[in-house]
Design goal:
By secondary structure, the protein is of the alpha/beta class. The protein contains seven helices and eight strands; from the N terminus they run ααβαβαββββαβαβα. About 35% of the residues lie in helices and about 20% in strands.
Amino acid sequence: MLKKVIGRLKRYYLAYIKRDPIMLDVVRWFSDDGDNTLLLDYPLTPESVVFDVGAYHGEYSERVFKKWGVKEIYAFEPHPNSLKTLQKRTADIPLKIFPFGLSDTTTTFSLSDDANASSFMSGGEEDTISCEVRNVSNFITETGINQIDLLKLNIEGGEYAVLFSLIESNLISCIENIVVQYHTCVPDYEEKRA
């Protein structure tokens, strides 16, 4: 309970006293009901191609399918427990589920085991799970995907590496819309975000 109160006080301080730009974006997101408006406000059709990177339990993929009937959704989730839930939850929708994440390299890494905040960026002593990521640019090239209508990134700090890889390979030009949850757990995140 005390942890929640401290968290709320910190967010209030950052938004309304310090006027932190990222916290102001968070406040704006919630005041706009972003989860039900901005997150789903894209011109998609059943023929669209969607990448849900950091699919977690599949809520976003499920909402995209229900709203537009998109038949080609690629869902990436490296955490084994989240992957099992994703597979069960979305068994009735035509997802292409991949048991790895996307990054700027292909490797295995230790992922903190912290539910929807699991991250390879956290430096705590909590339990970790070995997971795999693959190079996003290589994945797109090898699968022959020519256009991505929507790329959703919520990967707890790994979004910068994915975006830089896409920019460097010029594959960013084949992506029509990108929605990103930026995280502050990365060194120089403000510069990287800009």
